[in-house]
Design goal:
The complex is a heterodimer. By secondary structure, chain A is an alpha+beta fold. Chain A contains 10 helices and 12 strands. In chain A, strands 3, 4, 7, 8, 9, 11 and 12 form a 7-stranded mixed β-sheet that branches. Chain A has a 5-stranded mixed β-sheet with strand order 2-1-10-5-6. The chains are: A alpha+beta, B mainly alpha.
């Protein structure tokens, strides 16, 4: 097993010493990114460069503090790709459907229900839910189970803070999440694509890990609907589908909660869904991935490059069985 | 073109409404133009989309899916020619068969080239692993390999040289289409409707052939 494999990506890249970017430096990078995106020639020439055209303006870098490592910051996936190439089947199967079909989605008012085995259950308005938490920006690698990847600056707060606030009972071993069910606003939910509403879950120790992020924003602004507004999960060492979007319910349970994809196709998707180049999807290899904006595939890293931080969570587990 | 007609299997008695020589030529030309238009449509769509909105965030995936989908679509169109000819009695439709078949091969070959050259970037080890270990890629590649000799022997010279065997050889298009549909069904992430529509249409088109093959032989000609 590769769990203990030393890693050439320094842990300092996660949220290290502060590097505050002023607007000029940010824009310079954005421009460099545009040139990079256009360089693979004819195939990528159609991609919209950040800041040119499109219906959504690029994020305003004013006051945006990126406190991240050098390596990842240089290869941020452009905002247009992060918000235009999405798997969010509630809005349709095509990667462009979430951006296209989410125009009617009502982000406010929004309530989040906290329940199950905890001392502080309740139904909270989103503002109330967020009030005690200090938001921070973090750049994470994002690896989809379909073997493509991005590098994305999220904004949010550690899930651990929420768990502490809810104060789970001693018997709680898992945390379960549920996506909003609104077929009238989410056309994909009118079709039996998956067993709606979408559900996901984590082991409580995974939820307590400092990398697990309750996410409210991307690129320094609120999440757009297609990225899972107003509240989503971001667990960067797991495949993208674990990162449930538009959360309305959080429960603490004793039993392992349902993971929608694992429930739909247990032979292809598991509850853990840890990024693992050694364990292939039955229909494709997970050894490599295509970073959006690049032509050639790059090797996929164990636990998506976060092995130093998270491998110990799974020591002794057979990861070919618990995929 | 007369050659194609002769080897294309038993020709039903002509109920061709365009009986007069001039009219027949006009029908033939219309069929030819129609086949080329249909055959070029997917390429035009791809170029139009590229020019107007670009190929999106994952251009390789886009080209891969576009060429694969339309390759199968045009292949099914080519399979529809013979039943349509029987049904309508318009023999000139046979003109469309080779054109559509070759266009189907063109898009499917582009699909394979995109997979090998762009998606996998000639990583032969991974490609071999895919082809051997992943059933949906195995059947897809098999389908392509079955179509390869058909494309090569589509010239008049080969039709003449192979004689009756040409017809036999070109029955490989049936398993190729079936494997192509299986490739599509197994390739999608969740059950979608489109692959099963393809399956239904292919079943229908092959079913009509079975019907014609097994029904009572036509009365012996005097």
């Amino acid at each position: 097993m590769l769990i203990r494999k030393p890693n050439d990506i320094p842990s300092s890249e996660i949220t290290p010493e502060g590097v505050y970017l002023d607007r000029r430096r940010f824009l310079k990078r954005a421009a460099a990114g545009a040139i990079l995106a256009a360089s693979p020639g004819f195939l990528a020439a159609g991609c919209e460069a950040p800041g040119q055209g499109g219906t959504t303006p690029p994020p305003d870098a004013d006051g945006l503090a990126f406190r991240m490592g050098e390596e990842l910051r240089d290869e941020l996936t452009p905002y247009e790709d992060v918000t235009g190439y999405n798997n969010f089947y509630e809005f349709g199967r095509d990667k462009g459907d979430p951006a296209r079909n989410s125009g009617n989605f009502q982000i406010r008012p929004w309530t989040v229900e906290i329940g199950g085995l905890c001392h502080n259950p309740g139904v909270l308005d989103l503002d109330e839910f967020l009030r005690p938490h200090e938001l921070e920006d973090r750049i994470y690698r994002f690896r989809c189970v379909e073997a493509w990847s991005m590098v994305i600056p999220w904004r949010g707060f550690p899930l651990a803070r929420l768990v502490e606030r809810a104060d789970p009972l001693g018997s709680a071993r898992y945390i379960a999440f549920t996506t909003v069910y609104r077929p009238e606003e989410m056309p994909g939910q009118r079709q039996p694509i998956l067993d709606w509403p979408y559900r996901e879950g984590l082991r409580l120790d995974e939820a307590m890990h400092p990398l697990s992020l309750m996410t409210t924003g991307v690129y320094g602004r609120d999440l757009p609907a297609q990225n899972g507004a107003p509240l989503r999960l971001m667990v960067p060492w797991k495949y993208g589908f674990k990162n449930i979007k538009s959360i309305v319910k959080i429960e603490f349970t004793e039993e392992m909660p349902v993971s929608t994809w694992a429930h739909d196709k247990p032979h292809e998707y598991g509850f853990y869904a840890n990024v693992n180049p050694e364990v292939d999807h039955p229909r494709w290899s997970q050894a490599r991935e295509r970073r959006i904006g690049e032509i050639r595939r790059r090797p996929t890293l164990m636990f998506n490059g976060y092995a130093d931080q998270v491998a110990s969570l799974y020591s002794g587990m057979d990861l070919t069985r618990y995929y | 073109m007369e050659t194609t007609r002769k080897v294309a299997g038993p020709t039903p008695p002509s109920r061709d409404p365009a009986g007069a020589p001039g009219a027949r030529q006009r029908t033939a030309r219309r069929v030819r133009i129609g086949a080329w238009t249909l055959g070029l449509l997917p390429l035009a769509l791809l170029l139009w989309e590229t020019a107007t909105q670009g190929l999106g965030s994952n251009p390789i995936e886009k080209v891969l899916h576009h060429t694969g989908w339309w390759g199968l679509f045009v292949l099914v169109l080519s399979l529809a020619v013979t039943p349509l000819r029987r049904w309508t009695g318009v023999n000139a439709l046979i003109q469309a068969r080779r054109t559509l078949g070759l266009f189907a091969f063109f898009y499917i070959a582009l699909h394979v080239v995109t997979y090998v050259g762009l998606d996998q970037f000639f990583a032969w080890g991974y490609i071999l692993e895919d082809v051997l270990e992943r059933p949906f890629i195995t059947v897809g590649m098999l389908s392509f390999l079955l179509l390869l000799p058909l494309a090569i022997t589509s010239t008049r010279g080969w039709i003449r040289r192979l004689g009756r065997n040409w017809t036999r050889l070109h029955r490989l298009v049936y398993p190729a289409a079936i494997l192509g549909v299986i490739h599509y069904i197994w390739g999608v992430k969740t059950e979608a409707l489109a692959p099963f529509l393809f399956a239904a249409v292919v079943a229908l088109l092959l079913g009509t052939r079975l019907y014609f093959a097994f029904r009572k032989p036509p009365r012996p000609s005097p």
